Amino acid sequence: MSYNSNGNFAYSFDGWSTDPDATSGSHTIYPTKDEDYYAVWKVNVEVTFDANRDDAGYETWDSSQQEYVLKRTTKSSYARDSILYSYSNQPQINNSDYSFLGWSVNPEADKPDDEIILSEDMTVYAVWEAKTEIVFSANGGYFTNAGVIYARLFWSKDSTIYSDYTPVYPRGTKVFAGWATTKGASEPDVTYLTPIDGLSTVYAV
């Protein structure tokens, strides 16, 4: 097997064909007679994944420091003309305030590319989104598992809200019914389907 200069495979198996000069093959064959099948190989392209942040990357052993460090880039080989999936080679990040969205060929992109066709060696850049902070106010109660009257959690702005925190009221005189977007609400209006975007504080009812 051939390798490129970075130690990655230079070719990808594309299937079988009865034509020795075929440029595409099939992974499923149904022989009906004696005949020869030839492996079809495609030249790989090399993709450099750039985490696009100094606090993100790929865990790599640093022999000089004798410890694992985050390296901002890594390289992988893919069959030429294949499609790069959004969550391929997702990098780690040492910052819980951001969510990984996907990849773009533009280092300044604020959203991932709809489709990246790997037609040649290329560099793709991670796209990150700042998470939204939601304050869960116990609204006169407190959280038994945290011993506090409010909790702060972070979500991607395109996600929906949920919380494992369940507040209790002093001396058990009231029962927790859910969350609301206004402090004086008598009925909950926040469900697990409520979009995060635009929220800042929700109150126990």
Protein architecture, described:
15% of the residues are buried. The protein has strands spanning 11-17, 38-50, 56-62, 67-71, 73-79, 82-84, 92-93, 98-104, 116-118, 122-130, 132-137, 142-143, 150-155, 167-168, 179-180, 201-204. It is elongated, with a radius of gyration of 26 Å. It has 205 residues and is an all-beta fold. A hairpin with a 4-residue loop joins strand 3 (56-62) and strand 4 (67-71). Mean pLDDT is 82; it is low at 1-7. Strands 1, 2, 5, 8 and 10 form a five-stranded mixed beta sheet that branches. Strands 13-11-16-15 form a four-stranded mixed beta sheet, with no helix packed on it. The protein has no helices and 16 strands.
Assign a percent range to the helix content: under 10%
Biggest pleated-sheet summary: 5 strands, mixed
Question: What is the helix tally?
Answer: 0
For the terminal residues, how far apart are their CA atoms?
65 Å
Query: In angstroms, what is the radius of gyration?
Result: 26 Å
Unreliable stretches = 1-7
N to C succession of SSEs: EEEEEEEEEEEEEEEE
Mean pLDDT: 82
Content of β-strand: 35-45%
